[in-house]
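FIELD: query
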Amino acid sequence: MTVMPENPKRFGIFFFYDKDGVVDDYVDTMVLDMRKNLDELCIVVNGALNQAGREKFESWSDRLIVRENEGLDAWAYKTALETTGWDHLAQFDEVIMFNATIMGPVYPFSEMFTEMNRRDIDFWGITWFHEYPMDPFGTTPEGYIPRHIQSHFHAYRRSLITAQVFQDYWRDLPTIKDYDDSVGKHEIPFTKRFEQLGFKSDVYVNTEDLQGYNFAPIMFAPVKIIKEKRCPIFKRRSFFHDYRDVLMQSVGQDTRDLYEYLRDHTDYDVNLIWNNALRTMNLMNLVNNLKLTYVFPTRAVNPPCVENAPDLKIAMVLHVYYLDILPKLLAYVSTMPAGTDIIITVGGEEKAAKVREATQDLPYNVIIRLIENRGRDVSALLVGVKDIINDYDLVCFAHDKKVTQLSQGSIGDGFALKCFENMFATREYVANLIDKFRQEPRLGMMFPPPPNHADYFAPYIYTSWGLNYDNTAELLNDLGCHVPLSKHVEPIAPLGTMFWFRPAALAPLYDRDWQWEDFPPEPNNTDGTILHAIERAYAYVAQSAGYFSAHCFSDEFSRIELTNLAFYVKNMNHDEKLPFTVFGKGKLYVRVLRKLLPRHTYVEIRRKYRERMDRKRGL
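FIELD: result
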């Protein structure tokens, strides 16, 4: 074992990978604070590294290695160790290995090093992964995963660095092909292997009291170990972790609690999280893990989230086509705060005259704009008001939603209700919603979630992309909006085309300078057009501009939604009728469903539907 001298000499190895070779500023914050505790730093990059990243790393490090993206972190460390040489490494009291899968520091790393200097050990880390009763990797001789130091941070003392068994370990490290290999062949067995050889280990964050609570406290008790145990780091994975696994281990609160604790109770700049997350993570993962679904009171105004926040210049853009709905729309207009500009787009002077008459007594500055009957509500927003949209800090966009293509008006009316009641239920609701934009400067859009009742159920369950993944991806590419997107992950989108937004968040869309001719003339298709692509692109445009999007609910409508979702969860695996509703609607609906769903899914639903109908007929 090694007792550290008063001023230990440390050699650091930092491993970095980013598929685009971009070094985000969370890396700057972490590495530069770590650098204060190191005498020498080697940075190893797997794969690409852009010029800005190279310049950063060269200025911070004593040596930069850029290598093929092979062997993940384990072989990157092996490369650094062997090319540095064991004789040179033996001159240091400690070798530190850390990587970009962690974020921080929440507290200065010097605090951690000061504490660990007092401990008589051979190697250490920051956090434990606790013993797990099985070995899903099939690599441990014990047949289970033993307690081990997580490999996002390892520290080796001279007693271990100079040991032949340690040097042999790195020389003989097996080929690492993927994440499972890295964990199963290196991270999991390392700690127990060297403990059995007589070396003593420890961690800075003692989580023995959490054994039996969770196997990975850094993921599933992050606030507790930061707040109570002064853990200086948290996992980047918290924000994109597979949500199925989240719900297997918790009720899903941990990442939300982590973010809000960092935001409200520490000096850590949460913009560092957003800058990386919005560039590299699928928006659905962020919405799920961070609980980007806000519920606001309709009968009370929350205390201001941000004291002395600058006031926002607000507009409501309202597209009107169906004049019979106008009185209902104007009731919603009355929920806007004083000083809001109400901009109404309408096609034709005759309609405009009726709108002027209906709005003449509104206590707002009402602006009426004539537009062409081409592109519907989408062109009204992108063309009809594009010259003044940047005059505002925050805009509410709505239209007279009237679903006419479904067999029963009550189905479409339910969708409209979901949009209206979660956009501007009451004055108090709107005040609370606006205050959330003040609290979260990176919040770019807020809108109701998609419909999930009646004819909307099958698309909601199976795919919300409809026929629009390819055209949406093409549109985003044309706009220069390069964000993670997958046809296998449902979109985050204002499918009713009603939303609150910061104009800055949609700047890439407005930079396109749309013209009326860019939109198809009437009559329009019910799916697969540029209108539907834009509808699904809004939130990803905002993401590319550095803003996140969220769903919004009124407390009153939440009663409906929670009841519906609970019913689906309890019954959809037992009630065959739910997925098959669309089959009873006629050939048009069946054809649409066939286009929307993967072939094997469609065939399976059709087969079960026919079996159900045969049973009803007694066949």
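FIELD: remark
Residues 10-211 form a domain with the Spore Coat Polysaccharide Biosynthesis Protein SpsA; Chain A fold (CATH 3.90.550).
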